[in-house]
Specification:
The structure holds 2 protein chains of 2 kinds. Chain A is an alpha/beta fold. Helix content of chain A is 22%, strand content 29%. Chain A has one domain: Beta Polymerase, domain 2. The mean pLDDT of chain B is 87. The chains are: A alpha/beta, B alpha+beta.
Chain lengths: 153, 380
């Protein structure tokens, strides 16, 4: 199924999600607010997206952007599910109940971005030691051990 | 610190008798953990009741380092992700960059990528099977597997001067064309491969001890494999027909005729054997690619300073361990704003806590080996 077909299929099945779906450079994105994340994830799962490929976040300054990559074996197509999270008190509902694959990947985002996943069964650091300070993938992370690379270009 | 008892507690086992629950620490550096992995195992007698892998010992912050480098300077970093299969991370990253910057790759370069990556798949699977064999005590098989792997590594050394971190696939193509005589070398290797694999199949998979140690151990259901995001031989060992070379046919893969081997039991034996059959299929793909390949440029003219459009791209390939994806976010500057590596080994390793309970501590080692984690990629 091409990404355009997927849009038609999505719009026919869930008309309320239709305006939130966009296609850019061949990649489909469903952008929702935090409050609708779990409902949108459930809808996508019912639509045949049985694999949660990737969970990550991007530091966009004022907000963090949660990025989920979902894959459908049935339709052979992948989409992004995105939602903005405020930088102050970043909280997102966990998707472990839909895809257990979210377990470790949400722990990783929690570790490196400091985003808290409500409802996660075992939320603790995974990459860094338990007593580590700060969240290194935030753009404002400073540490004396991070040495800026000289500008060769 | 290898095997140490962390705590001891009186509990009641399944049959109602009082026994000690031991909490045993395996690792972080242990000959059977395939890298720097620590497993906290809760034991009742010899039976594992809970296994919690502790990772991060090899975390170098590659995703953070990439934000500080130009797109070309990131390629050597990707070598250090999966150091048993460096070509894959090179390729997945380059595909994302090419998608982001709109670079078209010459056809010969695509063929060279397929040839090197399929050879890499054989080398990586030999490492996986060989170390699985060593875990079950079959050290002869380990040497057989490593002999095949060594031949491939020698070919790669001749091709790009490096045995482990190749830095061969670059945005826009590959770094070098084939040296003189390489095609014949490769063809000879592929012709001899079938016999070698058949011998290994008899020697190892036909062995009664191997069957006893691996059959029925660490059974993964197809449903769990999909839900937990398992991919590669781990998912295919459970009969999940998911191979990006077929299901999201990228590069020139649609032009080749090959099978996707599937297991049915989902145990350690099937996972390991799927790798052996995949190695055979990879050999046939390499032969077909050598036939079809035509002379031409191996690199598109790409600026040393790639500054793609502001936006994002995700692309994935089928590595020896599964779906390896790279997600790039660009703000229009010559450095990636954010790079995320979707690591198959990371997702596969998460399954250890599902697979291990109910098995003995010695089976835990076999299960860990059958997931084939490479910690450079798990920890990044």
């Amino acid at each position: 199924m091409s990404i355009e077909d997927l849009r038609e299929h999505l719009c026919a099945t869930y008309p309320d999600l239709c305006p939130l779906f966009s296609i850019e450079f061949g990649d489909g994105t469903l952008a929702v607010q935090v409050g609708r994340l779990q409902a949108a994830a459930a809808d996508l799962k019912r639509l045949g997206f049985d694999r949660l490929g990737m969970v990550t976040a991007v530091d966009r300054g004022e907000t963090f952007e949660m990025v989920y990559r979902l894959q459908s074996r049935e339709h052979r197509v992948g989409v992004f599910l995105k939602c903005p999270v405020p930088r102050e008190d970043p909280r997102v509902p966990s998707l472990v109940a839909f895809w257990p694959a979210a377990d470790w990947q949400e722990r990783e985002v929690y570790d490196l971005f400091g985003i808290v996943f409500d409802g996660h069964p075992d939320l603790r650091r995974i990459m860094l030691p338990e007593d580590a300070e700060g969240h290194p993938l935030r753009k404002d992370f400073v540490s004396e051990r991070v040495i800026p690379r000289p500008d060769y270009i | 610190m290898t095997l140490t008892v962390e705590s001891r507690q009186r509990v009641t086992d399944a049959r109602g008798s009082a026994i000690d629950e031991l909490v045993v620490n395996v690792g972080p550096s242990h000959p059977s953990t395939h890298g720097v992995c620590r497993v906290i195992a809760h034991l009742e007698g010899e039976i594992v009741t809970k296994a919690d892998p502790v990772i991060g010992y090899l975390h170098r912050g590659i995703e953070k380092m990439a934000e500080n480098r130009t797109y070309l300077q990131v390629v050597p970093l990707t070598d250090r992700l999966d150091y048993v299969g460096s070509m894959y991370a090179n390729w997945a990253y380059c595909r994302s960059v090419e998608r982001l910057a709109g670079i078209t790759v010459p056809e010969r370069a695509e063929y060279l990528r397929v040839i090197t990556c399929e050879l890499q798949r054989i080398a990586s699977h030999m490492m996986a099977i060989g170390s699985s064999a060593a875990d079950t005590g079959a050290s002869t098989m380990f040497l057989y597997a490593f002999e095949v792997r060594e031949r491939i590594i020698e070919m790669f050394e001749e091709l790009c001067g490096s045995r482990l971190t190749y830095n061969y696939v670059r945005p826009g193509g590959v770094s070098f064309d084939l040296p003189e005589g390489w095609v014949d070398l490769c063809r000879t290797f592929c012709e001899g491969l079938t016999d070698k694999l058949a011998e290994m199949d008899r020697l190892f998979f036909g062995n009664v001890i191997t069957r006893g140690r691996m059959k029925g151990v660490g059974v993964l259901s197809a449903e769990d494999a999909v839900g937990w995001g398992a991919s590669g031989p781990v998912a295919r060992g459970s009969g999940v027909d998911w191979d990006l070379r077929k299901d999201d046919a990228y590069s020139v893969y649609p032009r080749f005729d090959f099978e996707v081997p599937l297991g049915d039991a989902g145990d350690c034996y099937d996972r390991a054997r799927v790798r052996l059959f995949e190695s055979y299929e990879s050999g046939t793909i390499v032969m077909q690619a050598l036939e079809q390949m035509e002379p031409g440029p191996v690199n598109a003219p790409v600026s040393r300073l790639i500054a793609p459009r502001a936006g994002e791209a995700y692309d994935h390939i089928e590595s020896a361990r599964g779906s390896l994806g790279v997600y790039l976010v660009s703000d229009g500057s010559p450095r990636p704003y954010r790079m995320k590596v979707r690591s198959p080994a990371f997702c596969n390793l998460a399954l250890l806590k599902v697979l291990a309970p109910g098995h003995t501590l010695s089976d835990l080692v076999v299960i860990l080996g059958s997931l084939d984690p490479v910690f450079g990629e798990v920890d990044r």
